């Protein structure tokens, strides 16, 4: 079964969401991404024990920062999925795409701050 989701999604694979750093997320926005979502394993099922819990804390901290700098924390979200939930991944990708379309372009792009390497992408 081929799952359909928006073509403007750019997937960045990592060994564990616990490896995600606030600089990676902020860098995506600086490069012109209009939104970012982090998809990690189910809580309690992390191969690296607490990686997804650390990731959620980092994502929440970056959401607050995005609100403070005027980009908007709604442009960032974290979801917990198992590898067997491909259909749910596609659903989330489409939901995030719709959310970002409602929010409009990344304010950093409009201000001329972003590098605009991949404008319009949800990472």
Explain what this protein looks like in three dimensions.
The chain is globular and about 40 Å long. It is 40% helix and 8% strand. It has a two-stranded parallel sheet. The longest helix has 18 residues, at 51-68. Strand 1 (36-40), helix 2 (51-68) and strand 2 (76-80) form a beta-alpha-beta unit. It has helices at residues 22-30, 51-68, 86-103, 107-110; strands spanning 36-40, 76-80. The protein contains four helices and two strands, in the order αβαβαα. By secondary structure, the protein is mainly alpha-helical. The protein has one domain (17-110). The model has no long low-confidence stretch (mean pLDDT 87).
